[in-house]
Structure formats: C-alpha cells, structure tokens
Amino acid sequence: MATEKRLSARRKHTLKSCMLMVANNLLEAEASVKAEERQKFLAEKLPPLELPYSKDELMELCKKLHEQIDISEEERYCIEFKLNMVLNEVRDLNIKIVDLRGKFKRPRLKKVRMSADAMLKALLGSKHTVNMDLRANLKQVKKEVKEEDKQLRDVGDWRKNIEDKSDRKKMFDS
After folding, report:
1. pLDDT per residue as tens digits for the range 3-51
2. Least packed by Cβ within 10 Å: which of 19, 23, 135, 149?
C-alpha cells in the first residue's frame, strides 16, 4: 500500500469533475430517449383529434372515446392486478428466504452497569414509580454464637492456648 502512488488532490478533483460530466451527459441522453419514447407512444395511442361540426358526428366521437377509455381502464386494471400479485409473491419469497436463513444474528450487547430502578424505568418508562430496594426484601438472619467460638475469643493468654494444643498433640502421638 505504501509503495503505491497516491493521487494528488488536484488530480482527484479533475477525475471527479470528469466523472460528473459523463454522468450528466448520460442522464440527459436517457431523458431525451424517454421523451422520444413517450411521444411515440402517445402518437400511437392518441391520433390527432378532429372535431366534427354536426351533433351526430360529435355523439359518435364521444362513443368512440368512451370505448377507448373502457379499453384503457381494463388494461390498467389488469396491469395493476398483475403488479399486486407479483408484489405479494415477492413478499412471500422474501419471508421464505428469511425463514430458510434461520435466526437473525444477534448483535453483541455492551455491558452496562445499571441499578434495578434505572432498568425498570428504562423498560417501563414513566410508569415506574416504586422504589425497588433489594436488600429490604432479604430475610434477617440472627447469627448464632457457639460456645466454642466464645471460648476461643475469650482466651486471654496465648501461652495457655498453646499448652492446651500441645497436650492434644501428645494424645495423638501416643
């Protein structure tokens, strides 16, 4: 990567402007092609209108126009129905694809230190008003002090304690 030559800012700018000019020309050409296609389609579907002067000819022209409108509405309805069918099929296929892939990948969640009150407030919103003190719900346990523990604590002279232990050691040795 370091050995490759990098483009200067001026060169990048000229390349970008050239690309934009080419893209603009392509868009203009595409727009002109679409306009020509539209003109051809309209000329094919809508011949130039010649208005007759008599009432009977006008009535006949209106009937022809109504027939053409009915035909175009039928075509529009058929195309719209086919489009809806295709869209529903695409939606069903997308659902099948998701089902075939299996479960979604779950993003790794960051560890957040949060108290129980803050967590409930985040989950429930402003509905949460009860203060949750977990320590208040714990049972109170009274500590039982054994007599042996009292004797061990009450031993005042450490030499006496050592002598007692040495007597026990002699019992095991013999």
Report:
1. 567 888 899 999 999 999 999 999 999 999 999 999 998 888 887 777 7
2. 135
Handedness of CA 46, 50, 56, 59 (dihedral sign): positive
List pLDDT tens digits, range 44-99: 888 777 777 888 888 998 999 899 999 999 999 999 999 999 999 999 999 888 88
Report whether 46 contacts 40 (CB < 8 A): no
**Residue 108 region, left (φ>0) first, then alpha (ψ -120 to 50), else beta?**
beta
Query: To 10 degrees, the CA torsion angle through 20, 24, 26, 28?
Result: 180
Predicted TM-score (pTM) above 0.70: no
How many helices and strands in the chain, by DSSP H and E?
A: 5, 0
